[in-house]
Design a protein that fits this description.
The protein has 138 residues and is of the alpha+beta class. The protein has 4 helices and 7 strands; from the N terminus they run βααββαβββαβ. A hairpin with a 2-residue loop joins strand 2 and strand 3. Helix 2 packs antiparallel against helix 3 and helix 2 packs antiparallel against helix 4 (119-132). The chain is globular, with a radius of gyration of 14 Å.
Length: 138
């Protein structure tokens, strides 16, 4: 089970946008969000998220939490399938046990949240995000 206190710690956003969208651009963001939440864009985004998680799992042990399922050291295909098939009402938590941090994803979001990252894993995540066409920001 994930240590719930890490969700009160510092967090970063793994996003398709490099900065937070200004409030006055809300209508434009809303249209972009609708666009990216449709296929094939949603699956393409989830593939990026899944590859990020799999790559980070090479550097730290992962516990995958999804609905009532909790799996220690999931194989890459399990991480991939869980993220790809996440329903809009579901959420996923990937707890990096060596580093006491977690990444969460809600099925109806265009971003993931990275809680309590240690510097080494944060730097790796930033590099992997760049390679995947994602942005890591506070």
């Amino acid at each position: 089970m994930t240590d719930q206190s890490i969700f009160d710690a510092e967090y970063y956003v793994i996003d398709i946008f490099p900065t937070q969208i200004p409030e006055e651009r809300g209508a434009e963001y809303s249209e972009a969000e609708k666009f990216f939440l449709q296929e094939p864009h949603l699956t393409l985004l989830r593939q990026k998220f899944a590859r990020l998680a799999i790559k980070l799992g090479c550097y730290s042990d992962i516990t995958l939490e999804y609905n009532d399922l909790q799996l220690s050291t999931p194989v890459p295909s399990m991480i991939y399938d869980t993220i790809i098939n996440c329903k809009p009402i579901d959420s996923i938590a990937l707890h990096f046990t060596n580093d006491n941090c977690a990444i969460t994803y809600n099925g109806d979001d265009l971003y993931m949240t990275f809680y309590n990252p240690e510097d080494n894993l944060l730097k790796l995540a930033e590099k992997i995000c760049g390679a995947e066409g994602l942005f890591l920001r506070k």
